Amino acid sequence: MFGYLVRRVLAAIPVMGVVALFVFLLLRLTPGDPAAILAGDNATPERLERIRTSLGLNEPLYIQFFTWIDRLLHGDLGVSLISNVPVMHMISNRIEPTISIALSTIIVAILVAVPLGVIAAWKRGTWIDRSVMGLSVIGFSVPVFVIGYVLIQVFAIDLRWFPVQGFRKLSGGFGPFLERIVLPTLTLSFIYIALIARMTRAAMLDVLDEDYVRTARAKGIGESGVLLRHALRNAAVPVITVIGTGFALLISGVVVTESVFNLPGIGRLTVDAVLARDYPVIQAMILLTSGIYVAINLLIDVAYTLLDPRIRY
């Protein structure tokens, strides 16, 4: 187990190295003056020189790369060209809303979707199965922003159970924090419940006809034990993959939901940086997103070995 984990970590290092090289060259190999591209058409010579100095564009390319890597290893992601604030500080201020919504969404989706998928596979062909699959189709079909606006209209405006928009940090009290993440969580949960439920049902159908499931039933094991201990565990590998990928997508920033509910997350930070051509922030967000995907894939691989020890070989 430990050797497998070490090999997976070592395999992730070249991936991040390639991503870092791509991010570094993204601007510098663009035709024209990178400082002029960032500053825009009406930039003053002083602003151009400040951008060149802040990004080290006056140095040779290889020196720029090694200097940039050294700063990354020391936790220095640069300074925003627009707000003149360290990028690490900007990300740290925006990461809590995104992580909070991502965790709550995945938890709700797992608690609802996995049982629905198991029941739909167990009752295949019945009205229960058709109802679950119909709900999944609706979850896939309706746009996220439509669900968000409907929830705001019903629960925030009509019933006045929750605030319309905004975010309150957990340090400000659990009650205010919870009431402001309920609606975004429910909005995002629709599509992930649909996705995980369909994947769980499909994976369960593949294993319910296996010999070991029939053997477990022949031994007199109860139906719940057959479904949970024998079928679900063997069907969990593709389900874990979907859950991990979905969580990585959520952490990377759900821009539409953050915009609908006015959440100051990293998704909106990325969009604002792209619109303002704030290249240090864009670089940092690409690296952050890549690092999240690599870490999530590593955790998924570890989960594989726990569910099926044969995979490590």
Describe the SSE topology.
Layout (H helix, E strand, L loop, with lengths): L1 H27 L5 H6 L5 H11 L5 H13 L13 H36 L4 H15 L2 H15 L15 H35 L2 H8 L4 H30 L2 H6 L5 H11 L2 H29 L6
Describe this structure in words.
The chain is 77% helix and 0% strand. The chain has 313 residues and is an all-alpha fold. It folds into two domains: 2-73, no CATH class; 94-312, MetI-like (MetI-like fold), CATH 1.10.3720.10. The mean pLDDT is 78.
CATH H level, superfamily name of the largest domain: MetI-like
- Rounded to the nearest angstrom, the distance between the terminal CA atoms is 10 Å
CATH level 1 name of the largest domain: Mainly Alpha
Average pLDDT level: 78
Q: Please tell me the total number of domains.
A: 2
Task: Please outline the major beta sheet.
Answer: none
Q: Give the CATH architecture of the largest domain.
A: Orthogonal Bundle
**Which radius of gyration do the C-alpha atoms yield?**
24 Å
Low-confidence stretches: none
Our estimate of the beta-strand percent is under 5%
Strand segment tally: 0
Q: How would the global form be characterised?
A: globular
In sequence order, what are the helices and strands, one letter per element? HHHHHHHHHHHHH
